[in-house]
Amino acid sequence: MKRVLFDLAALVARVVVGLIFIAHGVQKWQNGYDATAQGFTQGGVPQPRLAAAFTMVAEPVGGFLLVIGLFVPIAALALVVVMAGAFLFVHVDNGIFLADRGWELVGTLGAANLVLAATGGGRFGVDGIYKGVLGRRARRRAEDQAAARAPIDVSQQHRELSSP
């Protein structure tokens, strides 16, 4: 029961957080690279053009990967980097509250991604399904190898052959 609860919680977290990142990434694409880089410059982000390029890829691609549950730890870590930059360079001096351009949203999204990076996305995603299939194959292979190495009971085979 505990495992199913984790898998459901991970699914909900991945989908909700992923959709938020997709939305923010699409918004940046709609604004354009130059406008996004300019916003990063105004926010005091170092290397704003590089940061804008990274963010414009990490947010929608990472968000999509979270939603489908593929490469969850890697996608989540990339999004942690984006949120750490937003926290340190844009929001930290504004306090907590979003209404004051504070860090509550980037903190929450960063923390959620840190948990997903550490725990994975659960069984209800591409990674989980793939691991389940590989696990079943490995168990089957181990059982087959164990059966092949098992000693043969010659007396039992003799009885079976000689009985009418």
Structure description:
There is one protein chain. This protein is mostly helical and 164 residues long. The protein has one domain (2-151). Helix content is 79%, strand content 0%. It is built from 7 helices and no strands. It has helices at residues 2-31, 33-42, 48-68, 72-91, 104-119, 126-149, 154-162. The radius of gyration is 25 Å and the shape is elongated. The termini are far apart. The model has no long low-confidence stretch (mean pLDDT 92).
Could you report the average pLDDT, rounded to the nearest whole number? 92
Globally, the shape reads elongated
Q: Please tell me the total number of domains.
A: 1
Pairing-aware structural class of the strands and helices? mainly alpha
Total beta-strand segments = 0
Keywords: Cell membrane, Membrane, Transmembrane, Transmembrane helix
Subcellular location: Cell membrane
Main location: membrane
Family: Belongs to the DoxX family.
Tell me the layout of helices and strands.
Blueprint: H1 2-31, H2 33-42, H3 48-68, H4 72-91, H5 104-119, H6 126-149, H7 154-162
Helix pairs in contact: 1-3, 1-5, 2-3, 3-4, 4-5
